[in-house]
């Protein structure tokens, strides 16, 4: 009888561990998706800022060239 009770307790414990593991995997998956989304948005913002920097630099360079030519 004790063996059956012990076997039942072990089966219950393993079942609980399985549920916990499944929950951990689901949580990790959701976190991974959120991180991926945030990194993609950050990359888009960096790219946008880089384009603005290039345009600003080009404009300032052209103004500098024009000022040199005017002298």
TrEMBL record:
Keywords: Signal. Residues 1-22 form the signal peptide. It comes from the Bacteria. PROSITE patterns: PROKAR_LIPOPROTEIN. This is Lipoprotein. It comes from Alysiella filiformis DSM 16848. The lineage of its organism: Bacteria, Pseudomonadati, Pseudomonadota, Betaproteobacteria, Neisseriales.
């Amino acid at each position: 009888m004790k063996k059956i009770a012990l076997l039942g307790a072990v089966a219950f414990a393993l079942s609980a561990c399985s549920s916990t593991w499944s929950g951990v995997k689901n949580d990790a998956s959701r976190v991974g998706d959120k991180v991926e989304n945030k990194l993609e948005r950050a990359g888009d913002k960096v790219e946008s800022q880089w384009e603005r920097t290039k345009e600003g630099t080009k404009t300032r360079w052209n103004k500098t060239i024009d000022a040199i030519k005017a002298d």
